[in-house]
Amino acid sequence: MPIRSKILVILSVVIGLYALGDFFIQRKLVTGLFSDLEAAQAEKTTVRVKDSIDQQLQLLGARANDWAKNAGVFAYLNGTQPEFSADRLSPNLLEAQGIDLLYFCDAEGKVVWGLVRDPRTGQLPAPFDLAAFPDAGQGSLSDLLLTGWRTEDRARGILLPIDGFLNTEQGPLLVSSKPVSGGLNRHMVVGKVVLGRFLSYAFADEIRDRTEARGFRAWFHDPANAQPEFNEFVATDSGEPRIQTIDDRWLKIYHVVDARVDPAPLIISASVERHITRSGALATRYALVSMLAASLFLLLALLAILQKTVVAPLTILTRSALKVGRGEIQQVSFDLHRKDEIGVLAREFNHMLGQLALSRAAQVDSARQAGQSEIASGILHNVGNVLNSVNVSSGILAQRASEIAAGDLESLNEIIASHADDLPHFLTCDPRGKQFAPFLEALAGEIKASRHAITEEVAAMTEGIERIRRMVNSQQEFVRRTVVVEEVSLDEQVHKALKLSERVQPFDSELEIALDFQDLPRVAVDRHRLLEILINLIQNSRQAMESASDTPRRLSISLKACSERRVKIEVSDTGCGIDAEGLRHVFDHGYTTKRGGNGFGLHSSANAAGEMGAQLTALSDGTGCGATFVLELPTQPHSEPVEPA
Q1: Which pTM value belongs to this model?
Q2: Half-sphere exposure of 343 (CA within 13 A, CB side)
Q3: Do 475 and 493 fall into the same domain?
Q4: What is the tally of structural domains in the chain?
Q5: pLDDT, position 385
Q6: Which of 6, 272, 576, 633 has the fewest CB atoms within 10 Å, measured from its CB?
Q7: Pick from 99, 97, 48: which is nearest to 216 by CA?
Q8: Is 636 in a helix, a strand, or coil?
Q9: In the chain, what is the straight-line distance between the N-terminal and C-terminal CA atoms, in Å?
Q10: In a domain? residue 312
Q11: Neighbour tally for 602: CB within 10 Å
C-alpha cells in the first residue's frame, strides 16, 4: 500500500475513533445532563401549575369573601331583603365574575339561590345537574361545603370557611365556601355563599398561557378503577411529581394535590414540551456535525501538509530510485531546498547519484578501453605471429643474398679485364679460359636458384604484410562500428570540447566565443564520438579564422530543438568561408584547403555522425563569409545509422 494511502487510513481511523468517542460521550453524558435539566424544568413547570391553581383558588376565595361581607347578601339570607336576588343575581353575573357556579344557602344549608354555567358552552343554566348543588328550594348543600369532612372542622360547624377541590359529575370543581355574617352581631352566621370554577376547558387554556404546559387535566383518584402504578404513586406520594416520557417531543407530569374539600386526593397532569432536550439534541447534532466538519478539514489539512512535506518528497525519491534501478541515472536530479531530514536525505541522494554517475561513466570508459585493449591485444598477437613469419622470410632473404656468388663474378671480371686485348685467344687456347663457359653456366644456374628462392620469400613477406594490413583495418572497422550509448547533456559536452580544444591550442585574446544554449533534454548518444565531432568542428573553425586575419574572429555555438525528437548543434565562425564547389566536397576523404591538411577530420566526423543516426551539414555564403556546421542529433538512440559520407 502506498504511504499516502497508509497515512490517509491511519488519520481517518484516528479521527473516526475520536468522532465516535465524542459521539458516545455526548449521547451518554451531555444528553443525560440535558435530560436532568429538562426534568428539573418540568418540576418547576409543575410548581408553576400548582401555583397558578392556588392563585385561582385565592382569587376565588377573595371573591367569595366579597360576597360574604356584602350587606345585601346578609340581608337577603336573613330574609330582610328578598328583592336582592332579582336586583343583583342575574345570569350574566357568573361570566362577569369569571366563575362557573354561585350558590347561596341559609344557616341550615338549604339552597336559597343557585346557578351553574356550562363551562364548555357558557350556557345558563347548565344542562346538567350536580348532586352536591341542588336547585333552590330542592335541598341542602353537601356537608363537604358546609362543615368539611375532617372531624376537627366539623366541630366549627358552618362557620368554617372552606377552600379546595370538590369531585363532581363534571369533573373537579375549584370551590370556595364562605360563611355570611353581619349585622350587630358579627358572629351571627345566616348562611353561606359558594363560588366554583371547573378545572377544565377555559381553565386549561389559562394554565397553558401562564405556564406553557399543555394538556392540563385534573381528576380525583379512585383506587378501584385506577392503574396500579397510580395507586402506588398516590400511596407513596412525597410531594414530588412523577415525570413520564411520552415521546421525543413531550413529557407528562403528574402531581398529587390535597383536595382539602374532598377526602379523595386530586391528581393533576400536564404535558411539557421537551424544548431543552430538542435544543440539546440539536446542539449535540450541530456539535457533532461541526466536529466532523472540523475533523474533515483537519484531515484534509494534515493530508495536504503531509503530502507537501513528506509524501511528495518521498514519491520523488522513490521514482528517482526506480529510475536509478533502470539505469536512467542522468535523468535523476532534484533539489528540495529544505533543511530538515528529508532535505538532508535528498542532498545525500543527489551526492550519491553524482558519485554513481561518475562511477558509471568511469566504468563505461574502462569497459570501452578494456574492449579496445582486448581487441588490440588480439590483433597484436596475430600481427606478432605474422611478423615472426615475415622475420623468418627476411632472414632467409638475407641469407640468400649473402649466398649469391658475387666474389666469383668479381674474380671473373678481373680475369676478363686482364685479358681484354687477347680475350678470344684466352677463351679458346688458355686452359683457364676454356673453363669460362662451364663456370658461367654453373654460376647462372646458381643465380637462377637464388632468384627463385628470393622471389618466394618476398611473396611470403608480401602476404604477411597484407595480413597485417587487413587485421589493422578490421580493428578500425570494429572500433568504428562499436557504439556505447549514454544519456549526456549537450551543453556539458560543448564545454568539454572547448576545454579540450584549448588544451590542444590555447585561445588567444582576440577570439570571441558566443554560446547560445536552449534548455534541452538529455540526449542518448555515443559520448566519445560526439566529443570527437565537436572537437573537429571547433578546431576546423579556429583554423579557418586564422587564415582570415583581416576580420574579427568570433566562434558561435548554439543548441536548439528541431522537433520533439531531434536537436541540433550549430558551430559558426567568421573565417575564410567555403565556396560552392567546396561545399560539395567538404566531407570527402582527403579534401582540404589548408596547407598541411590531410582532409580526414571532417570526413571522419561526417562518418561518425552517420553511425550515430545524426546528420552533419555545412553552410556558407561563399569565400570570406564564414561557415556554419550543423550537427542534427536524435534524442533517442537510432537503430539504423545514416549512410556515412
Answers
A1: 0.47
A2: 6
A3: no
A4: 3
A5: 59
A6: 6
A7: 48
A8: coil
A9: 56
A10: no
A11: 23
- Locate 238 and state its grid cell: 412525597
Question: How far is it, in rounded angstroms, from Cα 111 to Cα 177?
Answer: 13
Residue for grid cell 369569571: 98
One domain, residues 186 and 42:
yes
Q: From residue 364, how far is each of 361, 376, 481, 612 by CA, in Å?
A: 5, 18, 16, 17
| Cβ atoms 567, 520 nearer than 8 A | yes
The verdict on residue 1 lying in a domain is no
Measured CA to CA, the distance from residue 454 to residue 604 in angstroms comes to 41
| Gap between the Cα atoms of 608 and 534, Å rounded | 11
Residue pointed to by grid coordinates 526506480: 322
**Phi, psi (5° rounding) for residue 124?**
-125, 130
| pLDDT for res 431 | 78
What's at 17, amino acid-wise? Answer: L
Grid cell of 593 as nine digits = 584547403
CATH code of the domain containing 115: 3.30.450.220
Residue 459, pLDDT score: 79
For the chain, the C-alpha Rg in angstroms (whole number) is 67
Per-10-residue mean pLDDT, the chain, length 645: 76 80 70 76 84 91 93 89 82 87 91 90 86 87 81 65 90 92 72 90 79 84 86 84 83 86 87 77 76 81 80 77 68 65 75 73 64 61 62 72 66 75 77 74 77 78 74 62 76 90 83 90 86 90 79 90 89 89 85 73 86 88 90 76 47
